[in-house]
Automatic annotation (TrEMBL):
<comment type="function">
    <text>Metalloprotease.</text>
</comment>
<dbReference type="InterPro" id="IPR001506">
    <property type="entry name" value="Peptidase_M12A"/>
</dbReference>
<feature type="signal peptide">
    <location>
        <begin position="1"/>
        <end position="22"/>
    </location>
</feature>
<dbReference type="GO" id="GO:0008270">
    <property type="term" value="F:zinc ion binding"/>
</dbReference>
<feature type="compositionally biased region" description="Basic residues">
    <location>
        <begin position="76"/>
        <end position="92"/>
    </location>
</feature>
<keyword id="KW-0732">Signal</keyword>
<feature type="binding site">
    <location>
        <position position="207"/>
    </location>
    <ligand>
        <name>Zn(2+)</name>
    </ligand>
</feature>
<dbReference type="Pfam" id="PF01400">
    <property type="entry name" value="Astacin"/>
</dbReference>
<feature type="disulfide bond">
    <location>
        <begin position="369"/>
        <end position="403"/>
    </location>
</feature>
<feature type="region of interest" description="Disordered">
    <location>
        <begin position="76"/>
        <end position="112"/>
    </location>
</feature>
<protein>
    <recommendedName>
        <fullName>Metalloendopeptidase</fullName>
        <ecNumber>3.4.24.-</ecNumber>
    </recommendedName>
</protein>
<keyword id="KW-0378">Hydrolase</keyword>
<dbReference type="InterPro" id="IPR024079">
    <property type="entry name" value="MetalloPept_cat_dom_sf"/>
</dbReference>
<dbReference type="Pfam" id="PF01549">
    <property type="entry name" value="ShK"/>
</dbReference>
<keyword id="KW-0479">Metal-binding</keyword>
<dbReference type="GO" id="GO:0006508">
    <property type="term" value="P:proteolysis"/>
</dbReference>
<keyword id="KW-0482">Metalloprotease</keyword>
Length: 495
């Protein structure tokens, strides 16, 4: 009898666990980087070089930041000796950037994940925006929720406008992405259907107000380890940290849980937290953390702008310019440690919140034979494993059977990793953007000891000599490659 009761109790518990599991979607909560990766209908959206419909060249970096070539050169081009690292603390700007320049405001910049070039900040803390009329009411509501997250904790005021020269335009796109900081003309915040969540939209707004990603800080190696061996070659340039002349941390400590920090889901094994307790907390998409909020308030000088009598806050706190909860305006607020309710009055604390505990951490051993996206079978069915070999080698290695038996995972193959490589090389970028081009476009930049041969590539990356692609004998499959494998320059509309 007791045994029967135990069985029934166990069955009830299993049922409850199963219901809870199903209620949460039946799987681990996806990190923001994976959501951004999966939201793009075409994985080639993550190529570095894009020729826009208007004919101008744009750079897609770190999955979701769309930059001008001039911006990207200043970030990633060869460093010149004696380069100035002047740090401007001016917050309010009424100008549109450097006169006579098509790419305003990128001559001097520093940030934590925040750019302190004043021309990229929104004057008087006012961000103008409009939402595309094609958005459904629920999509518009989600955009408003993301905006409310920023207005709740910062002095930024978002004003609807269809006529402001500088304004955000939330619209459908080929993925989730934003321009960096305020631009002198209307700027797209692209939101494909898979991007229309509060967390992702708030993340993209972060870029639009001048923020980069947290895991790209120059001090990131003190907190995380980047395992480039686990990252496909075409994505390597997206993990090169910024230098101190790009980043200003405003005295705000590194934040594993920042809304601007990627997780480990898109590229398994790519980011290891040196405090293991934060490994599964990276990539959260609930909302702004305490350190996010503190940075935005310091960056836009909210307390001063809103006429607070400035005071020193204990325990790493900051002054919030407005009333919050039951407290009056201009009080000192500290880190609660809870993303859902990130602020606690510093006066209620006896000591500073605990900081990350950094310790020697081994880089996890990961299986390098995996697919980056969930649509690899569909791409294989379209014949991409053959016709877009270099692309599929980075994106759908497992599905296409392109896993090398060697330890380098096929990295010994010298080939281009971007559809725009030939055009970029012809434009002279092999020199002016050397640090990126030598890895992204080695073939087009003549860095290979010999031109890449499709047949040799196929031999080097196939999982075994017995592999039969799509049921075609190996000899027949290889004979097709010279016909179907080519490096072509194509345009891709991101708008």
């Amino acid at each position: 009898m007791n045994f029967t009761k135990c069985i029934r109790l166990a069955a009830c518990l299993l049922l409850m666990v199963g219901m809870t599991y199903a209620a949460k979607g039946g799987k681990k909560r996806m990190s923001i980087d994976k959501m951004i990766m999966d939201a793009a209908p075409d994985a080639q959206m993550f190529d570095v070089f894009h020729v826009m419909p208007e004919g101008d060249l744009k750079i897609m970096t770190e999955y979701d930041m769309l930059l001008t070539l001039d911006q990207y050169k200043k970030m990633r081009g060869p460093k010149t000796k004696g380069k100035s690292s002047v740090r401007s603390r001016t917050r309010r700007s009424t100008g549109g950037g450097r006169r006579g320049s098509s790419y305003p405001g990128f001559s001097r910049r520093q940030k934590r994940k925040a750019d302190s070039d004043s021309s990229l900040l929104w004057p008087d803390c006012t961000v103008y925006y409009e939402v595309d009329k094609s958005f459904l009411p629920e999509d518009v509501n989600t955009v408003e929720l993301a905006i409310a997250e920023w207005e709740r904790f910062t002095c930024l005021n978002f004003e609807p406008s269809k006529f402001a020269q500088s304004r955000l335009q939330f619209k459908n796109g080929a993925g989730c992405y934003s321009m960096l900081g305020r631009q002198p003309e209307p700027q797209t915040v692209a939101l494909a259907p898979g991007c229309r969540t509060k967390g992702i939209i708030a993340h993209e707004i972060g870029h639009a107000i001048g923020w980069y990603h947290e895991h790209m800080r120059p001090d990131r190696d003190n907190y995380i380890s980047i395992n480039f061996d686990a990252i496909p070659m075409r994505f390597h340039v997206n993990f090169d940290k910024y230098t101190t002349d790009i980043i200003n941390d405003y005295g705000v400590e590194y934040d594993y849980t920042s809304l601007m920090h990627y997780g480990n889901d898109a590229l398994p094994g790519s980011i290891t937290a040196l405090d293991p307790s934060f490994q599964d907390k990276m990539g959260q998409r609930e909302g702004l953390t305490f350190k996010d909020i503190k940075l935005a308030n310091l960056m836009y000088e909210c307390a001063s702008f809103m006429k607070c009598e400035l005071k020193q806050c204990n325990f790493g706190g900051f002054q919030l310019y407005k009333a919050h909860k039951t407290a009056l305006a201009c009080e000192c607020w500290c880190d609660s440690g809870d993303v859902s309710d990130p602020l606690v009055l510093c006066s209620e604390l006896d000591s500073a919140p605990p900081q990350p505990s950094i310790r020697p951490t081994e880089t996890p051993v990961v299986d390098l034979c995996y697919d980056v996206r969930d649509d690899c079978q569909m791409l294989k069915d379209k014949g991409y494993c053959m016709s877009k070999l270099a692309f599929m080698m980075d994106i759908c290695k497992q599905t296409c059977g392109l896993c090398s038996t060697g330890s380098s995972g096929g990295r010994e193959v010298c080939m281009d990793h971007d559809k725009g490589c030939e055009m970029m090389a012809a434009a002279g970028l092999c020199v002016t953007l050397e640090p990126v081009m030598q890895r992204q476009c080695p073939a087009s930049c003549d860095l290979c000891s010999s031109p890449p041969d499709p047949c040799e590539i196929q031999k080097n990356v196939m999982a075994s000599l017995d592999y039969i692609p799509n049921g075609i004998p190996r000899s027949a499959g290889v004979s097709l490659l010279p016909v179907v494998v080519s490096i072509a320059v194509a345009t891709l509309s991101l708008a």
